[in-house]
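User: New here, any thoughts?
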Amino acid sequence: MQHLPQQRILLNIQPISSNNNDWRTPIIRWIDEGHLPGDRWETTKIKTRAIRFLMQEGMLYKKSFTHPLLRCLSQEEGLHVLKEIHDGCCGSHIGTWALANKALRVGYFWPTMKQDARYLVNKCEKCQRHATLIHKPAEPLNVMLSPCSFSQWGMDIVGPFPLAPGQKKFLLVAIDYFTKWVEAEPLARITEGKVMKFIWKNIICRFGLPRELISDNGQQFQGRRIQDWWAGLNIKQRFTSVSHPQANGQVDVTNRILVQSIKKRLDRAGGTWVEKLTSILWSYRTTPRGSTGESPFTLVYGT
């Protein structure tokens, strides 16, 4: 059993001080003491802004229409929270938008959180070293319609990675097109039987029978045995052509994110990527995706 280190996000968060440089101080003084500055413009600004905040047990919270009460932090405390989310025990070096959004979703707020997230990502050596360099010209987007959760899955094989215990060097990846939920399993060899076992264990027994599976033309996906198995389960199989790989672009994007996360987390300790995969998947599933505005975890479990 692996014991994760205790969560450290809250360790350095202190009660609110009366520091005049703290953005929270004028709001707190107005809410608690009714104190306002002499300047009329500043008075109006503080009153207008304070409507969105409240005090609870000595802490300042921001009201939100889409989130629970958000605990207000100083910029120093906010940077500490961002660093924990970015490269803590279950961090996967996510980008600027996802980093700020995730801090918001776990219940924190400060005015400069987006700028601070950009600063942290730009200063992260691993993020800069393994950042994606896009060389392909822009193309029109291809819409892939999925009627409901877990009805349409895309599958692909990633690797080889550095050799891990058990001779594992490949990653079999599947993603649901509706929720963006991802399942992945490290394997030593990708065979027809391994693919069938993965689909049964990670997709069918967890989320029910899908209507359609999309994959490339690899032998592991188009053998007679697996074709008969899919036909017996009434699952439609769709292959992507070499000339039009965009048909499975969702999986390609996910694979790229997973590979980057593995590289950033492991750096030079490449053989331990299997051990880190669980926490990388957890980070991916709980990070809001740009296409939906929600995390896969929220769309699957509703929280």
